[in-house]
Design goal:
With 132 residues, the chain is α+β, with helices and mostly antiparallel strands. The chain has 6 helices and 3 strands, in the order H-H-E-E-H-H-E-H-H. This is Ribosome-binding factor A.
Length: 132
């Protein structure tokens, strides 16, 4: 069983989901429009796949992936280097008492999807599936 990104076994609250989605959208807009004054960050095309928030909404984790999957370390370095400016810009659009600290992680969803496809393409697995 895959480990959940949420610490609570019942899953995130509606408020956590709503705030996470607002952060994801705003973060995507910021990265697309080049609102951050860092040429290294602005030349990268970064996709924000998902954002999760802690129950107290003090910390958000953004799962990101550079276009094409390359330059992962460079993208994480640029995002982490500009985290305070990104947090300030995101915070302007949120109507929260506190703007969450945003942490960045590589989104490995696509890698897991490729691994799953490769597994189902394996001859032994196909044979077992065809039997059923």
């Amino acid at each position: 069983m895959a480990r959940s990104r949420f610490s609570d076994t019942s899953g995130p609250s509606q408020r956590q989901l709503r705030v996470a989605e607002l952060i994801r959208r705003r973060l995507s807009d910021i990265l697309t429009q080049g609102d951050i004054h860092d040429p290294d960050l602005n030349r990268l095309s970064i996709t924000v796949g998902e954002v999760t928030c802690t129950p107290d909404l003090r910390t958000a984790t953004a799962y990101v992936l550079p276009l094409g999957g390359g330059q992962r370390d460079e993208a994480l370095d640029a995002l982490r280097r500009n985290r305070s400016e990104i947090r300030r810009v995101v915070g302007r659009s949120l109507q929260l008492k506190f703007t969450p600290e945003i942490r960045y992680e590589i989104d490995e969803t696509f890698d897991r999807l490729d691994d799953t496809r490769a597994m189902f393409a394996d001859e032994n697995v196909r044979r077992d599936l065809d039997r059923e």
